[in-house]
Design a protein that fits this description.
With 186 residues, the protein is an alpha+beta fold. The protein has helices at 10-25, 33-53, 99-106, and strands at residues 2-5, 57-62, 73-79, 109-115, 118-125. It has a five-stranded antiparallel beta sheet with strand order 1-2-3-5-4, with helices on one face. 24% of the residues lie in helices and 17% in strands. α1 (10-25) runs antiparallel to α2 (33-53) and α2 (33-53) packs antiparallel against α3. The chain contains three helices and five strands.
């Protein structure tokens, strides 16, 4: 499934509506976390293509059928600009510059590659069928949880931080005794 978009900001809304209709056609409702997350990702990637390239682009959506209900949903935006996507560090008051940070937070995987004279930016969301029997809030490894946006919650090990460098202990020298005469108050 694909949609051609013009370099016009109104195309972002059209791309969101298109994605919702494609998901609905695959049995994924608007209110499902997967749909909500995917529509937000469509919005961010199409906005980037429209705003930063000023060129037409193609949005592609791959939703595996019911036979493979756990396969990833893949979103791609292909444009004809050779400018690499650059994550920005937006300030607190900035109204933009967070698109790729959102993609990084919401997608299970994402990346980009050179495509002809342009590039392809892609992201994937893992699907799962729902919490397993006995799972409470997705706390069990590999279970779905509403809080993960439909993505699999994976128990991560405690972070391993590198050991701080060991510096030699400083040599403690006694302060020299004052050898002059004592000060007197005047």
């Amino acid at each position: 499934m694909q949609l051609e978009i013009r370099p016009d900001p109104t195309e972002v809304g059209r791309a969101r509506r298109w994605a919702r209709s494609r998901l609905a056609g695959c049995g994924i409702g608007d209110d499902e976390p997967l749909a909500e997350t995917l529509v937000l990702l469509v919005s961010e990637l199409v906005t980037n293509a429209v705003v930063h390239t000023g060129r037409p682009a193609v949005v592609r959506l791959s939703v595996p059928g019911a036979v493979d209900a756990t396969a990833a949903v893949r979103l791609e935006v292909v444009d004809t600009s050779d400018r690499a996507p650059v994550p920005r560090c937006a300030g607190d008051d900035a109204t933009g510059g967070r698109g790729l940070a959102l993609v990084d937070c919401l997608a299970d995987r994402w990346g980009w590659s050179v495509e002809g004279g342009g590039k392809r930016i892609w992201c994937e969301l893992d699907r799962c069928e729902g919490p397993a029997e006995g799972a409470v809030g997705g706390e069990n490894r590999g279970e779905c949880a509403a809080l993960t946006g439909g993505r699999q919650a994976v128990a991560h090990p405690e972070p391993v931080y590198p050991k701080p460098p060991v510096y030699p202990k400083p040599t403690v020298r006694p302060e020299p005794a004052y050898e002059g005469r004592a000060f007197e108050a005047v």
